[in-house]
Design goal:
By secondary structure, the protein is of the alpha/beta class. Helices cover 38% and strands 12% of the residues. The chain has eight helices and six strands. It has a six-stranded mixed sheet with strand order 1-3-2-4-6-5, sandwiched between helices. The termini are close together. Residues 201-216 have low confidence and may be disordered.
């Protein structure tokens, strides 16, 4: 599936019970050739209303963090002189539908949605993936280790360098960890600057090759 077909498949998905309570699906946003990909957890109330990931206070914090590295989620266009893919970020969630009352995603829901995320990564072919939060880590690395133990080094997802960091919603509650999240973004920027297309070259500090197989 290409981008339009994938978006249509997500919008029509009824693979789990979340389709019964969603207002709309939350596909993703950003430049279709962005070098950066941010993967979050699940849509919240405002995301469910607007159909875009990372809006509200957590989204504003993420945008500020990205802007500090001169990165933007804006899609741009081929005629847009500012639409440099190296300065663009594509943002998606592990789940495309909001769990009721913002509860944690279930294992069944994560499995049902995984093929969509896998295909987004295949289409985008990012040079760096930033996994934000516990459920993004579980989906991409198959790890139950805490974010605090996985951050600070470079992992891999199907050959693409991946950096783990805290979810912005968590940072709003734990201001002391903002400095650690900034370190993670700087590490990701270092790796992205060194990586070739589809992450076929990697650099950075203390790289850990936790390669994840599979696909969809």
């Amino acid at each position: 599936m290409d981008w339009p077909e994938l978006r249509a498949a997500v919008a029509a998905c009824r693979a789990c019970e979340l389709c019964q309570t969603r207002s709309q699906t939350v596909f993703g946003v950003g430049h279709a050739r962005a070098h950066w990909m941010v993967v979050g957890e699940a849509p919240g109330e405002q995301e469910d209303r607007q159909g875009e990931p990372f809006v509200g206070a957590a989204g504003q914090l993420l945008d500020r963090m990205l802007a500090a590295l001169q990165l933007s989620r804006a899609a741009g266009g081929d005629a847009d002189a500012d639409a440099d893919p190296s300065r663009r970020v594509y943002i998606a969630n592990t789940l495309k539908c909001r769990p009721p009352r913002n509860r944690n995603p279930s294992a069944e829901e994560l499995r049902a949605c995984e093929p969509f995320l896998v295909r987004q990564i295949e289409l985008l072919r990012p040079r760096i993936i930033l996994a934000m939060g516990r459920f993004a880590v579980q989906a991409l690395l198959r790890s139950d280790e805490p974010v605090g133990k996985l951050r600070g080094r470079v992992h891999r997802y199907q050959g693409v360098p991946l950096v783990v960091t805290y979810h912005p919603a968590y940072l709003l509650r734990s201001l002391t960890d903002k400095a650690k999240a900034w370190e993670d973004l700087c590490l990701a920027a270092e790796v992205a600057a060194s990586a070739g297309p589809a992450g076929d070259r990697s650099a950075g500090r203390s790289e850990e090759r936790s390669e994840r197989g599979g696909g969809a």
